[in-house]
Structures are given as C-alpha cells and as structure tokens.
Amino acid sequence: DTAVSQTPKYLVTQMGNDKSIKCEQNLGHDTMYWYKQDSKKFLKIMFSYNNKELIINETVPNRFSPKSPDKAHLNLHINSLELGDSAVYFCASSQAQIINEKLFFGSGTQLSVL
Amino acid sequence: DQQVKQNSPSLSVQEGRISILNCDYTNSMFDYFLWYKKYPAEGPTFLISISSIKDKNEDGRFTVFLNKSAKHLSLHIVPSQPGDSAVYFCAASVGANNLFFGTGTRLTVIP
Q1: Coil, strand or helix: which one is A84?
Q2: Is B48 in CB contact (< 8 Å) with chain A?
Q3: Is B65 exposed, middle or buried (0-12, 13-18, 19+ CB in 10 A)?
Q4: What percent of chain A has pLDDT over 90?
Q5: HEC-encoded secondary structure of B39-104
Q6: Higher-scoring residue by pLDDT: A45, B108
Q7: In chain A, which residue's Cα lies nearest the Cα of B100?
Q8: Which pLDDT score, from 0 to 100, does residue B2 have?
C-alpha cells in the first residue's frame, strides 16, 4: 500500500501544452510538497502546503500552480510548458510543517517536454 | 548557488567493507542534516539524520558524523551489503526552512 503516490509516472508532451501531475498521500500527514530534480540531479523544493499556508519558492515560475482539494492531495498544474520544464517531479509529505521532519516521497514523475 | 555538495558522483565498495559517503556544505547556519537513499524509479527515502548539536548519530549499520568546523558530514555504512546499492542524497536545513539537497552519490556494493 503506497504511502505517497503520484501519477503519471511518465509524461511526454509538446511545448505550450498544459498538464497536471496528481499526488495523494495516505499517511494522514499535514504537509505536502513538490520537489523538482533537474538534469544536474539537483533536488529543489517548489512548494510546501498545508491546510493553512502555501509557501512558494520564489524561483518557481507562476506557470506552476499547486492545487489541493483536500489534505491528502496536492496536484501540480503546469501551464504553457517549456523545454526547460523537463525534469523529474517528486511529491512528498511530512507530519508537520517542520522541514526537519522526515519527508516521505512519491516515486516521481518524469516530464519530457518536446 | 549549491549550498550542499557531494563531490563524489559514485563510489564502489566490496560487500562487507565500509562505505563512506561525504557531504560538504557552505552555510554555517544549517542546523539539521539528513541522508536520503534512492533506488531507481523510486522516490528518496529517509535514512538517518543529525542535529548540529551532535557530532555523531548511529542507527544500526549506519552512522552519520558531523564536523561543524569543517562544514562536513559523512555517512558510514558498516558492513556494506549489496542491497545498499543506491543513490545517497545529503540534505541540510536551517530551522523550519526548506531542505537543500546535494546532487547525490551512487553507491555500488560489489558482492
């Protein structure tokens, strides 16, 4: 029973398209995150979100937007996809909004923009 | 600017020997450090952590050492097992702020 699951696992799309990646956690955690791992293997936080607060990494373009229908879900919407958006995107969750709290990651979504 | 660096992209070790993975950081304000392990096609999983008030933390075969003056931490795995073959990420944080990850070291344990 997967704790943090994200879909799809692979996503290939054309430049300019709009796409979404879904994430669900069944751990009862309060906080969810989106991380991006680029071609240089850097893992960087994009967003952290709990039911009270969305914290956005200021370097993230506003084409990226998280949507949370409930505490267990945090989806990532990307508008007007660009070549540079190609990366692996990881969803994660933690018990509290304390970054020292260990994170539970999903298995990643490999996005390829052609 | 990469604040957490893992300068060795890969490491090979014989089964039963010690694996030592290294990590350097530049921000002296970091107060919490974590190691994550990642298998192919899976997300990173938490392995072990250490607070800046300590210089060592041990959990079974895994020990993390922190040298604050050198801004260096290391992960020791003894004895190494083939199932330890994975990519290991070092991460650091300041207070409740976000985690800064290194680029990972791929460990291969040779049977």
Answers
A1: helix
A2: no
A3: middle
A4: 61
A5: CCCCCCEEEEEEECCCCEEEECCEEEEEECCCCEEEEEECCCCHHHCEEEEEEEECCCCCCEECCC
A6: B108
A7: A44
A8: 81
**pLDDT band per the 50, 70, 90 thresholds, residue A57:** confident
DSSP string, A3-52: SEEEE-SEEEE-TT--EEEEEEE-S--SEEEEEEE-TT--EEEEEEE-SS
Mutate one of B52, B103, B105, B106 to test the A interface: name it (highest A CB count within 10 A): B103
Question: Using the beta-carbon criterion (under 8 Å), do B42 and A107 form an inter-chain contact?
Answer: yes
* Closest of B29, B38, B14 to residue B90, by C-alpha: B38
Structure tokens at B30: 């970091």
pLDDT tens digits along B61-93: 999 999 999 999 999 999 999 999 999 999 998
Dist CA A109 CA A11 (whole Å): 7
Per residue in B28-48, pLDDT (tens digit) is 999 999 999 999 989 999 999
Q: Is A44 on the interface with B (CB under 8 A)?
A: yes
CA of B17 vs chain A CAs: smallest distance (Å):
27
Residue B45 in contact with partner chain A when CB distance is under 8 A: yes
**For residue A60, with 0-12 CB atoms within 10 Å meaning exposed, 13-18 middle and 19 or more buried, which class applies?**
middle
Q: Which A positions 9-28 lie with beta carbon below 8 A of chain B?
A: 9
